[in-house]
Design brief:
alpha/beta; Rossmann fold; 7 helices; about 35% helix; disordered C terminus
Length: about 220
């Protein structure tokens, strides 16, 4: 299965999600896009479900000179680190600390850019649908899930058009449901599963959020 683009994939994903969310539409559901790439998919889901849209920003941790991620970090949370990779690469505490500091600054920059003048939408007691354009990175997905769990949603659903089967199976232990349209045994990146797959810019992400998040729905964040 290949998707024409992220918007098409979002339409299809919304149809799959709708039965799970029957009777919960409106203020009971919040759709979050794993930013930036997940936001065009999430925007279509939010539109179809008539739900507000917000973003979750997670950054991979890496050390200069190594392409392989060593962890991931979300705003306000301790970093999630792959200890096995740290040992194999010989990453020092100083190198890890520098990566955490660098990526935390980037998380804060994007959070401020995506939500100018408003806080994050409240998630306490609500059904949260976290949408990615591809569930292909276990560290990033798990960091996002852990960060959102701290906001005490009533239900947390992880959804993506394409999901690595191993990662999806592993994450089912941490969320109420994992919804995937295509579940290949191996999916190392989302791009090959789309006909058109451009890099989503910060401006594009911000515009998508502004269209689906009326000022009246803004609420207090975790801080």
């Amino acid at each position: 299965m290949r998707f024409l683009d992220r918007s098409t994939a979002g339409h299809q994903l919304a149809r799959r999600l709708a039965p799970l969310l029957s009777g919960r539409a409106g203020t009971g559901v919040v759709v979050l896009g794993l930013a930036p790439g997940g936001l065009p998919v999430a925007a279509e889901v939010a539109e179809a479900l008539d739900a507000p849209l917000d973003a979750t920003v997670v950054r991979s941790l890496a050390v200069r000179g190594h392409d392989r991620p060593i962890g991931a970090i979300a705003d306000g949370d301790a970093p999630l680190v792959d200890r096995h990779t740290l040992r194999n690469l010989g990453v020092t505490a100083a190198e890890l600390g520098a990566s955490v500091k660098r990526e935390r600054v980037e998380v804060h920059r994007r959070e401020a850019l995506y939500r100018p003048g408003r806080d994050r939408l409240p998630l306490d007691g609500r059904t949260v649908v976290l949408v990615s354009d591809g569930l292909t990175d276990a560290l990033t997905a798990r960091a996002a899930v852990h960060a959102l769990a701290a906001d005490h949603p009533a239900r947390l659903i992880l959804a993506a058009p394409v999901c690595d089967a191993r990662i999806a199976a592993d994450l089912r232990r941490d969320v109420d449901a994992v919804v995937c349209l295509h579940l290949p045994r191996y999916a190392h990146a989302a791009g090959p599963w789309y006909g058109e797959f451009h890099e989503v810019t910060d401006r594009e992400a911000a515009v998508l959020l502004q269209r689906r998040t009326p000022v009246g729905r803004a609420g207090a964040g975790r801080g």
